């Protein structure tokens, strides 16, 4: 039987970031990073849209993404001269209908107070900024002039994974099948291979599977997989200044290389947990919902054709679409870093550092993540993020 001071379940962006920052914060003990799918074929990380924004409704979420932005700006110092994640700083453009205008303005107030560089435009200003956009049904918009855009998720994950190779992490290629507990402590994990690892601390970084992992320790966690389809399409028209656009309908679209990607507007408030093994794209969405919505907003997209699609699973927190960070109050050596609900890639570096600070120093030292604590789940007290894309 092996022993690890810290066992991290899930080795994609969240688990890798936690391991990385544990070492950065000076943790010298043994760390086992357990990953069952080391190609990350089904990880949310590699199936995501890999975009980063400041346009959240909650200050804490803005701070988490701002830390990642700082890491992007300082990538070569941290990860070496060749480090490159292809960050395209093209902004988000969030469009509000008359019904959504008050929320957009309130969100902008929160973002401005956090130092985010977001322009709040009325319709006339929006038409001047992006003349190729239809402003039908739009009352106002918010555009990230800097600090927002998209990047290569694989490249970011590789930077963290490669950095771990020289930081004596035990990479375990296996699946956690059960978690052993004794009284109010998690004491180890059992793997599919039959191997067992004793653990001082167990950290749940299992993304969309996090609810199932918590259940193995006898704990409830309101995080479940929710399937999301991303469509790739081509269009004759190119808009060099095109940001990631979020329509009031929930449809988003952004350039991706010489093509575009789009999705959203799925009935995420009403649907149930997805089958965790279902990665079949919902092609019918494109014809039924996405294409008509896109053509109405960007007339040049009247004649487009989806060429490819993929589906991934959001790590969806059904309580409030926000992360759960920190220990379980009744099992203090079992920590969560889960439930990011569609914004976890950009928040993983900061969330990983937060967990590392808790473990190493016993308290948050940089961004106070207490509001993301499990207690709110136990009390049924949502800490709701309004900008879930
Ligand atoms: C379509 C889509 C678009 C998205 N767009 C964005 C975006 O633009 N910006 C953004 O910030 N976020 C986005 N997200 C969300 C983001 O991808 C996730 O929040 C983030 O990647 C979560 O990272 P993770 O490491 O926790 O989860 P994952 O990447 O899913 O990794 C969890 C890992 O745990 C492993 N695992 C699970 N169970 C076990 C077990 N029992 N034993 C061993 N290993 C196990 C899995 O194999 C997996 O590799 C998007 C997600 C999707 C699906």
Task: Please give a structural write-up.
The protein is an alpha/beta fold and 389 residues long. The chain has 2 domains: 2-50 and 154-222 and 320-379, FAD/NAD(P)-binding domain; 88-149 and 229-313, D-Amino Acid Oxidase, subunit A, domain 2 (D-Amino Acid Oxidase, Chain A, domain 2, 2-Layer Sandwich), CATH 3.30.9. The protein contains 11 helices and 18 strands. The protein has helices spanning 13-24, 44-47, 59-73, 75-79, 101-113, 123-129, 153-165, 210-216, 283-297, 344-361, 375-379; strands at residues 2-9, 31-35, 51-52, 92-96, 118-122, 140-144, 149-150, 170-173, 176-182, 185-191, 196-204, 223-234, 244-246, 251-256, 259-264, 305-317, 324-328, 331-338. The strands form 3 sheets. Strands 1, 2, 8, 9, 10, 11, 17 and 18 form an 8-stranded mixed beta sheet that branches. The protein has an 8-stranded mixed beta sheet with strand order 5-6-4-13-14-15-12-16, sandwiched between helices. Strand 14 and strand 15 form a beta hairpin. 48% of the residues are buried. Bound molecules: flavin-adenine dinucleotide. Flavin-adenine dinucleotide (FAD) binds at residues 9-10, 12-15, 34-37, 40, 43-45, 47-51, 175-176, 205-209, 213, 228, 230, 312-315, 340, 342-346, 348.
